[in-house]
Amino acid sequence: MVKSKTQFVCQNCGAGYPKWVGKCDNCGEWNSLLEQIPASVGKSVVARSGTSGKVLGVQTMRSISINEANKRLLTGFSDLDDVLGGGILPGSVILMAGQPGIGKSTLLLQLSAYIAKTEPVMYVSGEESATQVKLRAERLGAEKSEQLNFASSTSADDIAATIRSGDYKLVIIDSIQTLALDEIVSAPGTVSQITNSSNVVIRAAKQSGAAVVLVGHVTKEGSIAGPKVLEHLVDVVLQFEGDRYGGFKIVRAAKNRFGSTNEAAIFEMYHEGLRLVENPSAALLAERQNVDGSVIMATIEGTRPLLVEIQALVNPTSFGYPKRAASGFDLNRLNLLIAVLERRTKLNLSDKDIYINVVGGLKLNDRAADLAICMAIASAAVSRRIDDGIVVFGEVGLGGEVRSVSSADRRVSEAKKLGFTQAIAPRGLTKNIFIKDVSDLRTALIDYLQK
Questions:
Q1: Residue 155: is the preceding peptide bond cis (ω within 30°)?
Q2: Closest CA to 145 of 180, 165, 121, 173
Q3: CB contact set of 32 (below 8 Å; sequence gap of 6+)
Q4: Cα-based angle 335, 302, 83 (whole degrees, multiple of 5)
Q5: Is-contact 230 192, C-beta < 8 A?
Q6: pLDDT in tens, 199-239
Q7: How far apart are CA 269 and CA 110, in angstroms?
């Protein structure tokens, strides 16, 4: 009797090993190997002969026609349509990933209900029962749509067959980590199941012309769970970010074959579902109190200018080693800016605990936040505030110089709309009298920190 050969597969990168090892040599992850039985065990592999270009159906690019059936599906959220490049393209495969409880299922059910007003939609859930989804649909007002269909299944074969039938223009699969193929003996969520299930679904979508949205889980580090090849297979990767307990939630495209990756849609969660935030700058500044450590920064989310409040708190440390903490800002970048402040100005922060908070639950990746962070820390350290009508933006170099940033005109325009009178910004950006330019960090602190 022939013994079945098993292999150990890394759940992070998909590398295979004949025996278990603690660390994957390919990606460096620890304890990521699981025992699996290859699907090809006991089955003969038959070589297939190739086909000619005539059998393949080769055609010139000029002869390919785009008919009316390929028009994009609008989601009901104008900003989300912009993120997708104008709506959902038929035949495309979209992967949406985000932290648990962020609102992925809520957003997709609202989107499905809107599209189902004109086109047939299938919502497939491998995590929830029909009753659970119906309760959410009643809360969101999505239960009355005649063309919104539901199925509870984890079979990738059955879902692919449903997509190939051509009965639905949009198929939502929640989530890809729950799908499994009968030919693969490993458990759902493993590398082999995710890779093969997504391949089957993607092929069905391309054949039928139906758009497919896959929901993806994330790891504790924030990356999409499963093999990296999953992100390469799909056409669009959407990241759903924000605070699951409140604040704004942002959808942005990490990959988009049909549009820009510079757009962002900002949502806020209500009992009736997610709503677009029409004027996020005004909402973020509505409860602001101008005290020391508070600075208004003009940032860019995608292509949208946005004013956010940066708060800093500086206290004498109670222990030998000062603590630095940041909410919504990179901690390593904060430590670098603190070192620049100490070296290029007369501030002594070596015995101070420093806390930074970006109001509204936003996460800033904009280097133009450097100057605002530095001024907020200096303001809190010396107990002096910045004037009410000032916004701040600019990148800070290691020499203490303030460097130019992109989209200065749009940042200034947003500040003017909300009644601000001047902006502290890098020198030489524009000749606009609204901007009070500064060349280095020390000059900015001396000139604009009021008593």
A1: no
A2: 121
A3: 10, 11, 12, 24
A4: 135
A5: no
A6: 999 999 999 999 999 999 888 777 887 778 889 999 999 99
A7: 12
Residue 373: both structure tokens together: 């962070």
- For the chain, which residues make up each domain, given as ranges? 1-38, 72-278, 282-450
Quick one: CA torsion of 285, 289, 291, 293, rounded to 10 degrees?
-30
- pLDDT tens-place string over residues 77-109: 999 999 999 999 999 999 999 988 899 999 999
Per-residue HEC secondary structure of 245-258 comes to CCCCEEEEEEEECC
Specify the pTM: 0.78
Query: Phi and psi (nearest 5°) for 113?
Result: -65, -35
Residue type for position 328: G
Question: Which DSSP category does 196 fall into?
Answer: H
Q: What is the DSSP secondary structure assignment for residue 23, as one 8-state letter?
A: B
Asked if 115 and 75 count as a contact pair (C-beta separation under 8 A), the reply is yes
Amino acid making up residue 379: S
Query: Considering the domain 282-450 in this protein, what is its CATH number?
Result: 3.30.230.10
CB atoms inside a 10 Å sphere around CB 429: 19
Partners of residue 180 on adjacent β-strands: 155
Structure tokens at 229: 């090849």
The CATH-assigned architecture of domain 72-278 is 3-Layer(aba) Sandwich (3.40)
Cβ atoms of 349 and 419 closer than 8 Å: no
